[in-house]
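To the wet lab folks,

You asked to see what we're planning to order before we commit. Fair enough. Below is the target structure as tokens, and below that is the sequence we designed to fit it. If anything looks off to you, flag it before the synthesis order goes out.
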């Protein structure tokens, strides 16, 4: 059994298109939620979203490359490149021991929406021959493997909003059991199409606030839904022996992973929360005992039922030892990419001994009953960080992170 460490991180997000910019805005409490614009969205009730401002795809790709991939892959590959570069991994790993676990919650929604319009307006002969590869979520992992020359395992774990967290956990298991030396893992999402916004809106999952400062309110008594975000995040996992042998800088250790299913409903969480409890308990048991303050980067969508179920699971598991935040209050909900982005946020908190604030949240719902950091970031000595991701279909994923030894 091998210890597993993190040696690289990459981020393209609504509050920063590099890890450095993301970190600065995260701990300063600057959100990236803005009002929607565009005449084609005038019939929507949704008024805000969280786009990746400052990201210009043409700065990273040629025009032919951009035509051959859905916009979410463009975001994702930049995060992958950042993570691999920070890890110094190129040329320093056996290609058959190097994997890509990269995913998306919804995949190429802009491609399918656009090509459907082409089909209905111009007929089947005008539909792009690249429709299928651009639409298929697993082509993110496949494309990354091609670019990186990674001949090890390449796959996409599709579990709604827990997808990229699951990819990280499964990568940890793959390395721990000796099937790979290094895996770049994470997720990417760009789902801000009119179709997707309408779908989430009619599901009553999105906040309908027109005030960007009060739109995403995790754990607040006035919370009313999430804000759709876009972006990508990636981390490089390695066996500790492999990282040490090549002199890599270890950013954090990943020591626990829990993964359960509510087996209850396609969208609603099971109100007893026992499956969430078990995911956390399994991850913590694998990580081993720890004393002191634990930072929990909660799933924290700002939806009424999810926040209650999650908060009760946190208090049952950690009692008063958990200091909680929801970084979705700043980034919006990146769906399949959320878990990877929040893993990066949890690593940064652990390294700084500082918990970022839950921005916008002013008055905690009394039924929540957990220690949520609001207002400004809180300095505190942390023993470990936990990242929680919950997804439609009842997917529950928990990751445990530690400081380097």
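Sequence we intend to order:
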């Amino acid at each position: 059994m091998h210890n597993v460490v993190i040696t690289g991180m990459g981020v393209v997000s609504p509050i920063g298109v590099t890890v450095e910019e993301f970190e600065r805005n995260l701990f300063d409490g600057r959100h990236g939620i803005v009002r929607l614009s565009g005449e084609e969205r005038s019939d929507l009730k949704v008024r805000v979203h969280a786009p990746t401002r400052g990201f210009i795809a043409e700065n990273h790709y040629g025009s032919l490359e951009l035509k051959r991939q859905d916009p979410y892959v463009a975001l994702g590959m930049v995060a992958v490149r950042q993570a691999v570069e920070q890890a110094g991994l190129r040329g320093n790993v056996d290609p058959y021991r190097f994997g890509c676990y990269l995913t998306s919650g919804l995949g190429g929604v802009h491609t399918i929406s656009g090509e459907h319009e082409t089909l209905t307006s111009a007929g089947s002969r005008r539909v792009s021959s690249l429709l299928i590869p651009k639409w298929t979520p697993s082509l993110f992992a496949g494309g990354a493997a091609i670019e990186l020359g990674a001949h090890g395992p390449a796959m996409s774990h599709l579990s709604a909003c827990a997808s990229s967290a699951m990819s990280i956990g499964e990568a940890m298991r793959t390395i721990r059991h000796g099937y790979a030396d290094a895996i770049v893992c994470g997720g990417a999402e760009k789902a801000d199409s009119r179709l997707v916004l309408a779908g989430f809106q009619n599901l009553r999952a999105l906040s309908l606030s027109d005030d960007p400062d009060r739109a995403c309110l995790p754990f607040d008594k006035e919370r009313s839904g999430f804000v759709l975000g876009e972006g990508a995040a990636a981390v490089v996992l390695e066996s500790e022996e492999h990282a040490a042998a090549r002199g890599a800088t270890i950013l954090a250790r990943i020591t626990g992973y829990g993964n359960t299913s509510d087996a209850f409903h396609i969208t609603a969480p099971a109100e007893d929360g026992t499956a969430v409890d078990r995911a956390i308990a399994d991850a913590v048991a694998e990580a081993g005992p720890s004393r002191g303050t634990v930072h929990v980067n909660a799933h924290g969508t700002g939806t009424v039922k999810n926040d209650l179920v999650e908060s009760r699971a946190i208090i049952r598991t950690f009692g008063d030892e958990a200091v909680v935040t929801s970084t979705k209050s700043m980034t919006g909900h990146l769906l399949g990419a959320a878990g990877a982005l929040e893993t990066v946020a949890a690593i940064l908190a652990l390294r700084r001994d500082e918990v970022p604030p839950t921005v916008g949240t002013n008055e905690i719902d009394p039924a929540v009953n957990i220690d949520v950091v609001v207002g400004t970031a809180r300095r505190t000595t942390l023993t470990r960080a936990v990242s929680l991701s919950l997804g439609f279909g009842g997917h529950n994923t928990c990751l445990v992170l530690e400081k380097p030894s």
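Structural context that might help your review: Residues 4-245 form a domain with the Peroxisomal Thiolase; Chain A, domain 1 fold (CATH 3.40.47.10). The first helix runs from residue 19 to 28.

Thanks,
Computational group
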